Structure formats: structure tokens, C-alpha cells
Amino acid sequence: ETKPRLPVIWLHGLECTCCSESFIRSSHPIAADIVLNMISLDYDDTLQAAAGHQVEEIRERIMREYPGRYVLAVEGNAPTKDGGIYCTVAGKTFLEILQETAKGAMAVIAWGSCASNGCVQAAKPNPTGAKPVHELIKDKPVINVPGCPPIAEVMTGVLTYILTFDRLPELDRFGRPKMFYGQRIHDKCYRRAFFDAGQFVESWDDEGARKGWCLYKMGCRGPMTYNSCSTFKWNNGVSFPIGSGHGCIGCSEANFWDNGPFYER
Ligand code: SF4
Ligand code: SF4
Ligand code: F3S
């Protein structure tokens, strides 16, 4: 309450906007609290009320008036082929906007797998030359928050940590906050006892599927996927993919689209 709100510029490149959809569903803290009381969300293509020249002026004003004191949040990645023309905003390529806005930022947050590791746009044959943020911005700390999308409370948790402690969270070697990406889905999965006992679902309608056995043989990538889904779950702790009867497809891991088919027996 005593500190000025942290200015945040939230850019959108090649993406589907579901990271924003996830963010606005955060319950602890609620997204409205973050946006209205904790940060000053000065620019965001999807959540801003203003439009057109007015908002482009706001982005420029924040860069000018708060050098080294604003956070750049990025949803989506930048196409680099043919000069980056496959994503343009207000007459500029997204690549140019990203590089220009990152210059004065104190840190960059890469929301979701698109911004963190490329996701579907960068999957082979990557027709637009899409590149994740950390491959394009080398001179700023980049916090990768992967997941397609990331869990809402992980997103607001990263912002809350920065605001509370006035520092960036500790990151692993892939630039992910350790507090949210330090364990595999498999480590906390409630079906783990069935894995350990060798009880596996062998087809979608077998007895094991009805009894909720382990989905490893149905292609579950939980043993090699680092994320908080089996701890926090989704939709205010209601469930997560495995809780709905489907294996983890590793949506927070780099190259998950290229790492073989999701369905393999
Ligand atoms: Fe959408 Fe997934 Fe990209 Fe987020 S990471 S913008 S959910 S495609
Ligand atoms: Fe591990 Fe997946 Fe089986 Fe859960 S369902 S115990 S994450 S292999
Ligand atoms: Fe993604 Fe696997 Fe979680 S598919 S949503 S990381 S359980």
C-alpha cells in the first residue's frame, strides 16, 4: 500500500491469448487485485480500455518515464523470417516492438510456452521463423513461465513474488522459477501409487481406465514434465489433465509439439 504500483507493459506476439485467459482466472491472488491494486498494467493489447495511437503513446511514455523500472511481460513469440512481417502491431513488426520495449525494462517475463520455448508456432517446419523471447533478448533477465497456458496462480505468483520481495524469483537453468517448476508432474501425481504398483491403463475404455490407474502406457509425459499441475491443479484447484482421465502431454516442456505424437502405444 505504501509503494507505487509497478508499471507493466504486456505485449502480445504470435499467440492464442489463452495465457491471458488463464491469468484473469487467478483466485489467489485474484487477478483483479493484481491489475487494479498491485501493478499498473499500462499497456496490454487485450485488457486495455484505450486503443490505437493513444495506447502506443502510453507504451512510449512508460519507456521514457520509467527507464529500468518497468516490467515487460510477453505473451507469444516473434516471427523473424522475412524481417518479422508475419506479426505486426501499429505498423511495426512485433520483433521490433519487443526489442525496443525490452531495452528499458528491469526484467522480462515470458508468459507461456509460446514466449518461453516457441510452442506450436515454432514446431517444425516453423514457417515464420518464430523464436522465443530468450533467444531474442540477451541483455535482460528473462523469466520463463512455460505451460500452454501456464497455471493462473503461477502467473500471478511470479508477479506477487517480485512485488513482495523486490527481487526476481530464483530460476533454474531453463530460466523457470524454481518454486513452480522444481518438480515433475509425476512426483506429486495422485495416480503415482498405481505406477509404482504396475497398474496401468492399456486402452481408453478398459477396467484400469475406469479405476483411475496410471496413464503412462497411454503416453503420459508426467515423468519428464516440470510444472505445478499435480500440486496446484487448475480452475481454483478443481482438477488437471490427469484428473480428467488424460495423460499429461508435456505442454510446459520445450518442443513438446515435435517430441513425437501425443498418442503412441
Ligand atoms: Fe496460447 Fe499456449 Fe501460446 Fe499461451 S502458450 S498463448 S495458451 S498457445
Ligand atoms: Fe506419472 Fe502420468 Fe502415471 Fe501420473 S498418470 S503416475 S504422472 S505416468
Ligand atoms: Fe500441461 Fe501436463 Fe499440466 S499437459 S497442463 S503440464 S499436466
From TrEMBL:
Residues 181-262 form the Cytochrome-c3 hydrogenase C-terminal domain. Residues 16-161 form the NADH:ubiquinone oxidoreductase-like 20kDa subunit domain. It is found in: Cell membrane. The keyword Membrane applies. [3Fe-4S] cluster binds at residues 229, 248, 251. [4Fe-4S] cluster 2 binds at residues 186, 189, 214, 220. Belongs to the [NiFe]/[NiFeSe] hydrogenase small subunit family. Keywords: 3Fe-4S, 4Fe-4S, Cell membrane, Iron, Iron-sulfur, Membrane, Metal-binding, Oxidoreductase, Signal. GO terms for cellular component: [Ni-Fe] hydrogenase complex; ferredoxin hydrogenase complex; plasma membrane. This is Uptake hydrogenase small subunit. It comes from the Bacteria. It comes from Thermoanaerobaculum aquaticum. The chain holds residues 50 to 314 of 369 of the full protein. Heterodimer of a large and a small subunit. GO terms for biological process: anaerobic respiration. GO terms for molecular function: 3 iron, 4 sulfur cluster binding; 4 iron, 4 sulfur cluster binding; electron transfer activity; ferredoxin hydrogenase activity; metal ion binding. [4Fe-4S] cluster 1 binds at residues 16, 19, 114, 148. The keyword Metal-binding applies. Its cofactor is [4Fe-4S] cluster.
